[in-house]
């Protein structure tokens, strides 16, 4: 097997350790592996680059964590990072399976003339900050016979999260933690008007349409996307990003979220 072509997204470093088993390219259109050096934000930036050339589903994405927390980037010795990723890639190419290569399901948003993918979340906010935000959410789930059933939310906004994003904005807003490899999504209200409002966890095949009582501001994976729209369609797709992740999920959430640590 020939050496895979590696593309490096590394805005903060000029020199990297190189390996004989790896070949490097500056062209994201031809790479087999896309490497990120930074935190999860840097990895999301790399994912957006891949989306821009429609390669988000056929490239192995691997992040080395140089950030503060990092739930998608990997914590490991830097000298082992690239070689470990390439070994996993080679095994996956032959066996079509590797425990360190995870399929992360994506959200797809359709609004106006744009179609965008989210690896973490899509959040919706009022264009006029400080004003009560009201939206009608219509759920369509064909397998359950649900067709445009409505829930109305009032508050500061709404977060629609993938399983990968359950540890991000969703968690800060009181949403649940989800296993990152599942085909699920959450709908989490931001500072809801009613204290009884809670997150909803949905499985694959769901289509959501959201209508707003005022113009809204759409943010995808932390990046502002569109201002002043009054509706959006969102689907939990069958499409995935292939993510190299060597850390144990349960150990990661316990250590990085500070479970069982003293509050002193």
Keywords:
264 residues, alpha+beta, Rossmann fold, 14-stranded mixed sheet, 4 helices, 14 strands, 43% strand, globular
Describe the structure.
About 15% of the residues lie in helices and about 45% in strands. The chain is of the alpha+beta class. The protein has two domains: about 5-100 and about 245-255, Rossmann fold (3-Layer(aba) Sandwich); about 105-240, Probable inorganic polyphosphate/atp-NAD kinase, domain 2 (Tumour Suppressor Smad4). Strands 1, 2, 3, 4, 5, 6, 7, 8, 9, 10, 11, 12, 13 and 14 form a 14-stranded mixed beta sheet that branches. The radius of gyration is 19 Å and the shape is globular.
What's the topology here?
Layout: E1 5-9, E2 23-24, E3 33-38, H1 40-52, E4 60-65, H2 78-95, E5 101-111, E6 114-118, E7 121-126, E8 133-141, E9 146-155, E10 157-162, H3 169-172, E11 184-190, E12 200-203, E13 207-220, E14 223-244, H4 249-256
Estimate the global geometry from the Cα principal axes. globular
Arithmetic mean of pLDDT: 90
How many individual helices? 4
Termini Cα gap: 54 Å
Residue share in helix: 10-25%
Can you tell me the CATH topology of the largest domain? Tumour Suppressor Smad4
Uncertain runs are: none
CATH superfamily of the largest domain: Probable inorganic polyphosphate/atp-NAD kinase, domain 2
Could you state the oligomeric state of the chains shown?
A: single chain
H-E order: EEEHEHEEEEEEHEEEEH
Largest sheet: 14 strands, mixed
CATH architecture descriptor text of the largest domain: Sandwich
CATH class of the largest domain: Mainly Beta
